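[Automated response] Your request has been received and processed.

Submitted sequence:
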Amino acid sequence: MPPEIEAAIRAGAWLVFNLSGGKDSSAALFAAMTMLDALDHPRERRIAIHADLGRAEWDSTPDTVARIAARAGIALTIRRRQSGDLFDRWHQRFEAGKARYEDLSTYNLIGPWSSASLRFCTSEQKAQVIGPYLARLLAGETIIQIIGIRRDESSARAAAPDWKRDTRFAAEGNRAGTRMMIWHPVIEWSTTDVFQFHEKHGIPLHEAYTRHGSSRLSCRYCVLQSLADQQAAASCKSNHEAFIHLVALEARSTFSFQPARWLADTAPHLLPESLATDIARAKDDADHRRQLESTMPSHLRFQRGWPPRMPTSDEAALIASVRERILNRHGLENRFPTGPAVRERFAGLIAQKNSKELGKPMGQGNPS
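Generated structure:
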């Protein structure tokens, strides 16, 4: 146990166990419980919390989480994003992306999906749901969130710390005196360690592992999932409706669920004939969109501080030509159909950017 965590526990911190229903979060719960009992930490200052992702969750996840919390003998709280579940968020992202593309506020059309580099599925559906709630519920307290991540899960997590301060929802020196910390008690464990720990202590395991052979539990279908785990999810009948729903969004958006793989290809036998036809068309349209976008001036691509400059007349004409075909594919209004209209829009965007820069306090603008 990190000394900073131990000191906070001895001082009476609240312990909050983040439960996903997966093996690592339940291992972290029961491993930490043993240490907390050894320190005589009061059980009434321990709670479990689960961020419910709605239709993205396996049907059996809520029951699994409830069984784990009950076995640990701690209260369980369920929290949900008020503006819709993860499926809603993917649809909302695509609709917003189309609106921005129509408005020429972005250079390329934006797809619906989260990704390894843009994990709003985790930040918005979990952290932003749980963090503010805990800061309100336990204002003035020290709160330690226990999260079951392990370094051997991925290269990104290999550098994860044992613990860290969390100032996202309780800034240093806040008026209430709330202090938040994150602890990863099984950070050094291997996958074998985790499964052996469950077997030794009789801890319930999710059906994704026991019945369908998945290597890990996440959403039914995750943008970071391996092909084998996607196929494991597709082998569960109660996941079929979600599969069809997401494949339909692939077909409508022309963006594959993962950068290098279409979810539709995971279990093509589950697709209705009409959807299989739509997916084939979407793949062709995606190839065409990428080919068209590759012809656009690369140095005008979207970046921080976009747009970097005015396009030339020839560049603007090319941008208008490419956009026309992509806008038509998605039934969107072409508000800037000509090169001069594109240049006028860029001039307006540059003026807006310069106005914002002038409004920044000294030292915060871009160097001249």
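Summary generated for your ticket: The longest strand covers residues 46-51. The CA atoms of residues 89 and 121 lie 8 Å apart.
If you did not submit this request, please reply to this message.
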